[in-house]
Amino acid sequence: MVQGRFHAFDLTRELIRQGVEVTLLTNYPKYVVEKFGIPRGKVINCVSHGVVSRLTERACGGRSNSVFEPFLHRWFSKWAARKLSSIELDALHSFSGISEELMLSVSHRPIVKSVVRGSAHIRTQARLLEDEGARCGQPMDRPSAWRVAREEREYKIADMIFVLSSFADRSFAAEGVPPSKIRTVPLGSELSRFCASQDDIERRCARIQAGEPLRVLTVGSFSFRKGALDLVEIANSLHGRMKFRMVGDVARNVLDLKTSAKIEFMPRQPQFSLPSIYREADLFLFPTIEDGYAVVLAQAQAAGLPILATPNCAAPDILNENENGWILPIRNPQAFIDRLKWCDANRASLVRVVRSASENYQPRDWAQVATELISTYEHWISKDRV
Questions:
Q1: pTM of the model
Q2: Which end of the chain offers a freer environment for a tag, N or C, measured as fewer CB atoms within 10 Å?
């Protein structure tokens, strides 16, 4: 069950392809879900919830968290509980924040109850964002006290908690969650769409060797949480020497920051349009303050882009220093500036990294993610039935 999309649509498609009987609950229209290869008959949706959620976010921005979030999250969870009350289930795979009422409603049934946490433990996330708010001198859109308490109750109710990276795994351990509950299943990418061809790599190497300004790409959202303050300092420091492009939504509280940025901004693009954007880039920049995985990292990796990222995401799980990218400290734009300057000054070495990133890439598609998920559930169910 997912409120929105996240990576749930890609995962659902692959589970269905592997013969798993799946019912997807979402607040997206079915015609959108179909575009991801999921048959309408496998979808139960609450479009009214999606409409209200988007209108609320558009009207209130971050304030909707504290004002409307309790109503919206309970609504979706109770709606899902009603829809699943008469359906035979082996497992619930539900995203955190919208799972409490649903899991409680099936507590008397022999169902594996799992929560998916797309970020670090919510207390770790809240603390990092509170620190970032103090650093930026601006109010931050961070987890409310209500949301923190709710998610911690969900962690306790759940049989398993799925996280997406070793960074997220460590955050749960640090917050006292039993390691026996945690399962780490990294994300994948659609290799047929995002995987770089040999021609893509050769064109990238030719641009770099020709001395053209390096093309530095960031995809996701332009927000303080994603390192907007550092991204702007990096781009402004290297303006004229490199070209920076940011693709994604812009948070309201960074609009003033955006006006000062020497960055080409593009609005959020459909997932199907992103591969061509990755092909045009030379490097991928991701100075995030906090993330669970960020599917854009998997996409950038598949596209053969050397990645510069912080350790507060999946970067430590997928990067080897000087082979396919670099891991640099959070809140340290100078470290990113220095590394980008090195890339500019050492073009032959950068070409080597580009080729290494492509040649040594270990493909991980959504089929592999689905296979790992199936295996995890089968192991739990077989253990439970012994």
A1: 0.89
A2: C
Is the separation of the CB atoms in 13 and 36 below 8 Å? yes
Task: Match 């891991």 to its residue by tokens.
Answer: 327
Q: How much is the CA Rg of the chain, to the nearest whole Å?
A: 21
Enumerate the CATH 3.40.50.2000 domain ranges in the chain, comma separated.
8-188+366-385, 192-359
Query: Which positions ≥6 away from 165 have C-beta within 8 Å?
Result: 184, 186, 291, 292, 293, 313, 314, 316, 317
Report the alpha-carbon distance of residue 222 to residue 273 in Å, rounded: 19
pLDDT score at 60: 72
Given the DSSP bridges, would you call strands 91-95 and 43-45 parallel, antiparallel or unpaired?
Answer: unpaired
Give me the CATH topology for the region 8-188+366-385: Rossmann fold (3.40.50)
Enter the tokens of residue 343: 């890339």
Long-range CB pairs of 380-385, under 8 A, 24+ apart, other chains included: 380/112, 380/159, 380/160, 381/90, 381/91, 381/112, 384/110, 384/112
Question: Could you state, in chain order, the average pLDDT of each consecutive group of 10 residues for the chain (386 residues)?
Answer: 86 95 95 94 95 85 72 95 93 96 94 95 95 89 92 97 96 96 90 91 97 97 95 97 96 91 95 92 97 89 96 94 96 98 97 95 90 94 66
Q: Which token pair is 277? A: 């954007």
Other C-beta atoms within 10 Å of 83: how many?
A: 16
Q: Which fold has domain 192-359?
A: Rossmann fold (3.40.50)
* Total residue length of the chain: 386
